[in-house]
Specification:
The complex is a heterodimer. Chain A has a domain at about 25-220. Chain A is globular. Chain A contains eleven helices and two strands, in the order ααααββααααααα. Chain A has a two-stranded antiparallel sheet with strand order 1-2. In chain A, β1 and β2 (about 135) form a beta hairpin. Chain A is mainly α. In chain A, α1 packs across α6 (about 165-175), α6 (about 165-175) crosses α8 and α9 (about 215-230) runs parallel beside α11 (about 265-275). Chain A starts with a helix and ends in an 11-residue tail after the last helix. By secondary structure, chain B is α/β, with parallel strands linked by helices. Chain B is built from twelve helices and ten strands. In chain B, α7 (about 170-185) links the parallel β7 (about 155-160) and β8 (about 185-190). Chain B is globular. Classes of the chains: A mainly alpha, B alpha/beta. The interface of A and B includes residues 166, 167, 170, 173 and 177 of A.
Chain lengths: ~290, ~280
């Protein structure tokens, strides 16, 4: 039993780290644009298919395929933002959130139209699992874990050591003052959406690498992403990482006790508990 | 020649909402100008209109001869007029060092050099350069807000209630720092609820009532004016001579009838007044 728990925690650490990538994208968009972009699930699907197309159809290596997943989802995100969501800015965050749900449905069906409903596997070699006593982990999981860590490190460096990164954090913290200091809100918003959407795309590809890309890849992810962001505190990037790790581990531990079908309920339960006990999340600022 | 010229400025939070009704003001280089008046008189709104945060529906604003009427906050900043808002005037999630860097966001090549100059002027910021904005006390935050503004090397510094919420000691120290800036040639235009203290350190003053300037002149003359003192300064004659604020007072000739003047007298100078009353 103990080894099962440790194995579940190890799996949770890997899946939580992967989940953190789109969760950071989701929370970053919320921090700067102040609405929850539920199209992030479909953006993850677009990233998964863009990566698959690069890897399988074009024969690109995985590193280059990740880049196309990031770009494809990022461009789709900013296009949807400009065409559909931004025109509703004056109607408030709720209308923008509802619009993003609709955008997500449209994007998902565009993927279906282009690639069909069949699952698409990546062109990766089959390898034996790595074993540590009773514990097992696949080389692909290790690689995905490393990619997620590298991506988070790059994002951290960009946010802390570049002028635009600082402007993004400043805008998320105090948009009025940022504007007074000469920050162009539209530019910061566009870059945030491209980065947030791009991260969702890479997250989608990481998930698809572990299983396969299908039109519901992102849809299955969205509840866990939202739960991770809410648990960490909407708008907090460290919060999204911690929230994703916790959700990943709890989801894996649940499988030990309940049928795997109940795994999706974890997100709902976490959101319910957090909103009841601590609506601002673990790292969020209390309002009022 | 005045470095800041505001002429017949009109505007408010909505296009039809005229909180400020034709305000004209000037500030010379190195001069400190106080704007006092009751709550709701339009003091802060006038600063927001001048600095481009709100769009003026009429009037003209120029900084060092550059017309910035209706310009964006970025353009006003580039002209040399920098606003320090009353609230949320620092980036709470950024360190002091990063806050200062945001102060000259539009001129990134100057960050290092200007930051050292600000540290030299405000050494407390240098001591706590790694601290986050949210970790600072009220007075330290105001100093940081001024430091951020100084990073833009302003010609005119517009301060919206810089001493709000500060202890008398912290307020006095802050006024000293502001005086030092004026000594270096920066024009200061300052909205203040601590009217007596503000007039004590300023060269000139404007009294705003109901969106209009009802009195202007040397700060010492405003403090000495019986009507102004009775209406806006709680009848006080200066430090240590506080008297009770009147419950009702006639509006002097030449001032617009503002029904709220009498009842808002206490709020015009309330914090320090209450602290000093025996």
């Amino acid at each position: 039993m103990l080894s099962s728990i440790v194995q579940a925690l190890l799996n949770g650490l890997v899946s939580g780290t992967i989940l953190a990538v789109p969760a950071i994208g989701f929370t970053a968009i919320f921090a700067v644009l102040r609405y929850p972009n539920f199209a992030i699930g479909s953006l993850a699907t677009i990233g998964a298919y863009a990566g698959w197309y690069a890897n399988v159809r074009l024969g690109w290596p995985l590193e280059a395929s990740f880049a196309l997943a990031f770009l494809g989802a990022g461009i789709a995100a900013v296009s949807a933002e400009w065409l559909a969501v931004r025109p509703l800015e004056k109607s408030g965050a709720l209308m923008m959130a509802i619009c993003s749900l609709a955008v997500g449905i449209v994007l998902e069906n565009m993927v279906r139209f282009g690639f069909g409903n069949d699952p698409r596997g990546f062109n990766v070699p089959l390898m034996r699992d790595i074993r540590f006593g009773d514990l097992r982990i696949s080389p692909q999981q290790v690689e995905n874990f490393a990619v997620a860590l590298v991506l988070m490190a790059l994002l951290w460096a960009a946010l802390n050591f570049t002028r635009m990164g600082r402007a993004m954090r400043a805008t998320a913290d105090n948009p009025d003052l940022a504007r007074l200091k000469g920050v162009e809100p539209a530019t910061v918003a566009a870059i945030t959406v491209v980065v947030g959407g791009g991260l969702a795309g890479v997250g989608g590809m990481l998930v698809a690498l572990d299983t396969a890309a299908d039109p519901l890849t992102g849809f299955r992810l969205i509840l866990s992403v939202f739960a991770a962001a809410v648990l960490g505190g909407l708008g907090s990037i460290p919060g999204a990482v911690v929230g994703a790790l916790l959700i990943g581990m709890v989801e894996e531990l649940t499988v030990l006790l309940l049928a795997p079908n109940y795994r999706t309920a974890i997100g709902f339960v976490v959101i319910l508990i957090v909103l009841t006990i601590r609506p601002s999340g673990l790292f969020g600022e209390k309002s009022g | 020649m005045s470095v800041l010229v505001i002429e017949r400025l009109v505007g408010g939070y909505a296009s039809a909402d005229h909180i400020v009704k034709g305000v004209s003001m000037t500030a010379d280089a190195g001069e400190m100008v106080a704007i006092i008046g009751p709550n709701g008189a339009g003091k802060s709104t006038a600063l927001k209109l001048a600095t481009g945060l709100l769009r003026a529906s009429a009037g003209k604003v120029s900084v060092a001869g550059v017309d910035v009427t209706g310009a964006s906050p970025q353009a006003v900043l580039a002209a040399g007029l920098v606003l320090v808002p009353q609230e949320r005037n620092v980036f709470a999630a950024l360190s002091i060092e990063e806050n200062l860097a945001m102060g000259c966001y539009t001129t990134p090549g100057q960050v290092r050099q200007r930051r050292e100059a600000v540290y030299a002027r405000l050494p407390l910021l240098a001591e706590r350069r790694r601290s986050l904005g949210r970790m600072l006390s009220g007075g330290q935050r105001q100093l940081l807000a001024m430091g951020i503004a100084l990073m833009a090397e302003p010609r005119v510094l517009a301060l919206d209630e810089p001493t709000a919420g500060l202890s008398p000691k912290a307020a006095s120290e802050l006024f000293g720092s502001i005086r030092g800036l004026a000594g270096d040639g920066v024009a200061i235009i300052m909205v203040e609820q601590n009217a007596i203290e503000a007039l004590d350190v300023c060269d000139r003053g404007y009294v705003l009532v109901d969106g209009q300037v009802v009195r202007e002149g040397a700060a010492s003359a405003i403090v000495a004016d019986e009507d102004i003192r009775r209406l806006f300064l709680g009848g006080r004659k200066g430090h240590g001579q506080a008297g009770p604020a009147p419950q009702s007072s006639p509006v002097p000739a030449g001032m617009p009838a503002a029904s709220s003047i009498a009842t808002s007298t206490a709020t015009a100078s309330t914090p320090s007044q209450q602290e000093r009353q025996p």
